[in-house]
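Record type: ASSEMBLY
Status: queued
Input:
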Amino acid sequence: MSAIELQGVSKIWGETTAVNNVSFSIDQGTFAVLLGPSGCGKSTSLRMISGLEEISKGSLFIGGEDATIASPADRNLSMVFQNYALFPHLNVEENILFGLKVRNTPKQLQKERLKKVAEQVGLEQLLDRKPAQLSGGQRQRVALARAIIAENPICLMDEPLSNLDAKLRHIMRVEIRALQQRLGMTVIYVTHDQAEAMSMADKVILMCDGKVEQEGTPEELYNKPATTFAAAFIGTPPMNLIDPVACGLDKKISQNQQDNFLIGIRPEDIVLSNENGLKAELISADYLGADTVVTAKIQDQEILVRTPGKVTITKPTSTRLQWPVKSVHVFDKSTGKRNDNIEVLPI
Amino acid sequence: MKHASTKHQLYGWLLLLPATLFLLAFTYYPTLATLAKSFFSQGTAIRPAAFVGLENYTFMLEDDVFWQVAWNNVIYALFTIPISIALALMMAIWVNSRLKFKSLARMSFFLPTMLPMIAVANIWLFFYTPEIGLIDQVASVFGIESHNWLGDPDTVLGCIIVITIWKEAGFFMIFYLAALQTLSPELEEAARLEGASRWYYFRRIMFPLLMPTTLFVLINAVINSFKLVDHLFILTKGGPDNASSLLLYYIYEVAFSFLDQAYASTLTVILLAVLAIIAIGQFVFLDKKVHYQ
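Status: finished
Output:
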């Protein structure tokens, strides 16, 4: 049984459709990430699951029961908000216990749970501080603690790390993931950061323009992007999408209508070579430490190449590009869909 | 080094000078002069003012009108302050919600504040007029007899209280509305997810977060309740039989109608003392309970 299931869910505001006929299901204990650019409907989807936003069309099942019109409090879920939504006049302890107090949980149980949760998120020393006296990371922990103290099976997180600096974000990523696995929670996590999604998720649901573009494990999304959008969204830098005709690659695709296709190659699959391969010109280089992202040009097509070590380019240099046949992805040009029926020949 | 810091200090004092001058000339000097005057008798052309010690104050304690006016003011404050603040808060919450005619509602609540006091008094004078006034006309439909609202010592103070609440509530609403709009909607959502009712959210989250505004509004309301003059001019002139006279209006009468500046100064000193005690009390006792962002 899935913990959460959406069936043809839509959100319509007057003329605009923010979420369009979205269906997916998430299994118990899964860390699911709703990923997509801003305005793709991922936050709205999350808010519909939470009940803070009404579902215009379709149905929502939580734990197998229809929760389409249930009130937020009856859905047995907790939520971590983007700006933490901590109550500024209450101290850390009161913030964490807020939900239990609303539900009139016995004092003894409140105390036990508080002790356990404070330990789990490392807030034991800070219980009588006000949110304004905490750092960003500590506030984030309070928000987490407030979400897990109710011991709800499902936890929703709306871009919870977007206000933290890069280093702290990385630490919190690891901690949230560890906490989720230790507690066996089902988490739905909204983010626009594909690196966050790749590193945390059991399952990624990639959204675009209010629709689900692709769902699967991070590896599936990376290795077999279903559409050009998925290909260009996942990976840093994203996959190169090249028009084969413009690059003189049309002979390498065993099909008669070659100009109907785009080929995609990940920057890390391309090798710079001096002997054979496709002729190209190196334009510029972005040094990242362990490797360098080089911008190359074939005719007027820009191609990014990720190459180990440091490469310096002061003036346009000609070179040759190579890649293994198995790392080439083919997409239909008109629909943007992946097409695995096309055979690709080596360069 | 020393030279530089002296210059720096001089510069600072010069910057403070204009404001200091105005405060001295228009606040501190009059206050102290009033205090001094209250210890002297009212001078005339023949008999110059003489030091009389606390004579003015003993006279005040024996003055029946003073006690009546003071009591009127207490009743006036006890009714206008809590009611107008509660109404202001309710109206602010109401017009802060998703309402169809939000701007219209906001404007109509705020309108009484924008009208000049004299105009307000004239409008209400028409409402209260016996027989032809709005209230009596509406009442006559239900067969209720005409009543001279402002001419009856039993109802006149109530009439003044109603006008004040009508005017103040809209004004205080603006402050509450501004404060409400700084509250993040996420707070309400977080509370809703935990199953908090609207009343619980109001009691535990919204009202405590609005405390700075409440304190500000409260102080304003208290000060206003001691400084009403304009309405009384138009509506009642303090009558009948001082039933609607308030402290400041009485001071005005003593000073400019009875031309007894010495006694007026005495009353002013009492008014200032009362206001100072209330303000200090509010800041000292309430400030600890207020959460500032």
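Annotation: Residues 236-332 of chain A form a domain with the OB fold (Dihydrolipoamide Acetyltransferase, E2P) fold (CATH 2.40.50.140).
Annotation: Helices of chain A lie at 42-50, 92-102, 107-121, 136-148, 166-183, 194-200, 218-223, 228-233.
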